[in-house]
Structure formats: C-alpha cells, structure tokens
Design a protein that fits this description.
The chain is of the alpha/beta class and 269 residues long. The chain has helices at residues 42-49, 72-79, 97-107, 112-125, 141-153, 171-186, 199-207, 248-253, 257-263, and strands at 2-13, 16-27, 31-36, 57-62, 65-66, 82-85, 159-163, 191-195, 208-212, 218-222, 232-238, 241-246. Helix 3 (97-107) packs across helix 4 (112-125), helix 3 runs parallel beside helix 5 and helix 4 (112-125) packs across helix 5 (141-153). Bound molecules: adenosine-5'-triphosphate and magnesium ion (MG).
Length: 269
C-alpha cells in the first residue's frame, strides 16, 4: 500500500520555484531517504506532508487521501498519525527523560499501566534505559536527540519524518540515532522519510537491519552479499526535480554527472 504520494507537486516562493513537478511514492513500512543540496527543498517536502504548506499545483496523498485541499481541522486529524524529528529536540527542561516521553500519552489520557509499558519499550528502543530519571540538561546533545525520537514515536505514529537528525553528531551517536530509525522501520514497520546530508548515514541506513531474536530481543545486523534491503529507497532532489529514485545499489552505480559528484564525495553531501 502506498502511504505517501506526491503527484506533480509544484511550489514556488515568489519567483523562486522550489519544487517543479515532483512525484514519488513511499510504500507502507518503507523508509525513503531524501538527499539534496542545501536549499533544494527537502524540508519543504516534509512541511508539505505535514500540511504546513500547500502546493501551487499537484496532489499530495496520505494513505490515499488528498490533503492539499483539506481545512485545518481535517489536517489535524491527518497530523495525528505523524511525527517529526528535527535537530532541535525542544524537550521540557524541568521534566525527566521518562516524563518527557510520557507527556503525550498523558495528554491522550492513556491508562497509567499502558503508559509505563510503552515508555519502557521506547526507552529500550532508543537505548535510553539508563537515563530515564535524568533531566535533559544533564545529557549530551546527541542523547537529547534520542529522547526527542523516543518522544516522537511513543504514540505509534504511522509516519515519521526525520529532518537531518544527525547534523552535528559524532559518528557513534549518529549511528545510534540511525539504529533507532532502523528499528522503527524493521520492527514497528513505520513509514518514514529521512532527510540527511551525510553519506555515512546513507550507507548505514542502507546496509543495516533489525531483527527480533527468538528470545524477544532486537538485534542489529549488517547486510551481507546474500541479502538486499527492500524497505529502504532513496530520492535525490536537484533544481526542483527528482533526479534519482531507487535503491542504494543503483545510486552508487549511477552514471549521471551530478549524482556521481554527490556519491563520490567522501565528506558530507
Ligand atoms: N517560507 C519561505 N519563504 C520563502 N522562501 C522559502 C521559505 N521556506 C523555504 N524557502 C526557500 O525554499 C528553498 C528550499 O528550502 P528548504 O528549507 O526546503 O531546503 P532544504 O533542502 O531543506 O535545505 P537545507 O539542507 O539547508 O535544510 C530555499 O531556497 C529556501 O530559502
Ligand atoms: Mg532543510
């Protein structure tokens, strides 16, 4: 089932055309990684999905429903199913990690035992069990971002949008964050879009997967030659167009000059 679809979406800010006939699909349970230079319209795509911007032309479908003509009440109903993770976690400073994560379930009026079960689950998920009682200020920036992810996923959103969540993180913390996204993809079958500039994220997301072991633990494994992840796809945006839509193997082998410059850069994109 297609979860997110853009059909010939066009959006300009004044004379500047940011998206020019952009089309792509994200299947249920798939992670779509969006690559593109600064200013190419990646965050704009996420804001369109959230209904914070409306396209000038074209259609945006979420679970088959066209959202660009919906009013604010109807959009709020759609937004309930989504979560976004930015670089800035914006946690509540006076609340512990546990209470930050439990905030939304309390707001939704969940029974206390259900809240506790689910918060424990996402704490483990984001590898945060050791810091549940800490205040955000006492944690590193990277750990705060993991808390923001835990908070974003606690009410089981169907769609999770990541907007450059690894910017400024050291490689081990960036990997931890990618691992949380991978677990969501492979264990919870969430649909996600992951915007990043870092080729190392691209490689990690495309070559690692999570499985549940027979004793109920989640294990991360690296892809080997016998296996190819089918639930992770890539799009590259350049000058308002989707210039690539496919798998990481296809991306590394692309002949196009722009894509080659992109994929052969040793540093961040
Ligand atoms: N509200 C706005 N009004 C006018 N121009 C805007 C607005 N929002 C974005 N833009 C412009 O649209 C273009 C795309 O912006 P966007 O933030 O989507 O880029 P991006 O790919 O996310 O870049 P980055 O990698 O730097 O985050 C940029 O040129 C930006 O200046
Ligand atoms: Mg952006």
């Amino acid at each position: 089932m297609v979860k997110i679809e853009f059909r010939d979406v066009r959006l300009a800010f004044g004379p500047k055309v940011v998206l020019d006939s952009v089309s792509f699909c994200v299947e249920q349970g798939e992670m779509k990684v969006i690559l593109g230079q600064s200013g190419s319209g990646k965050s704009t795509i996420l804001r369109l999905i959230l209904g914070l911007l409306k396209p000038d032309a074209g259609q945006i479908l979420i679970s088959g429903e066209e959202i660009s003509q919906l009013d604010e009440d109807e959009l709020n109903r759609i937004r309930q199913k989504m979560s976004i993770v930015f670089q800035e976690g914006a946690l509540f400073d006076s609340l512990s990690v546990y209470d930050n994560i439990a905030y939304r379930p309390h707001e939704l009026g969940w029974p206390e035992d259900k809240i506790e079960r689910r918060v424990q689950e996402v704490l483990e998920f984001a590898q945060l069990s050791g810091v549940a009682e800490e205040l955000p200020d006492s944690l590193s920036g990277g750990t705060q971002r993991l808390v923001a992810i835990a908070r974003a996923i606690v009410d089981n959103p169907e769609i999770i949008l990541f907007d450059e969540p690894t910017v400024g993180l050291d490689p081990p913390t960036a990997h931890k964050l990618c691992q949380a996204a991978i677990r969501l993809r492979d264990i919870e079958a969430a649909t996600s879009m992951f915007v990043t500039h870092r080729l190392s994220d691209v490689r990690y997301l495309a070559s690692n997967y999570a499985v549940k072991t027979s004793d109920g633990r989640t294990e991360l494994r690296a892809e080997d030659k016998t296996l190819c992840l089918v639930n992770t796809k890539f799009i590259v945006i350049n000058e308002g167009k989707v210039v690539f839509d496919g798998t990481d193997e296809q991306l590394w082998e692309a002949e196009d000059q722009f894509l080659r410059e992109f994929t052969h850069d040793d540093e961040d994109l």
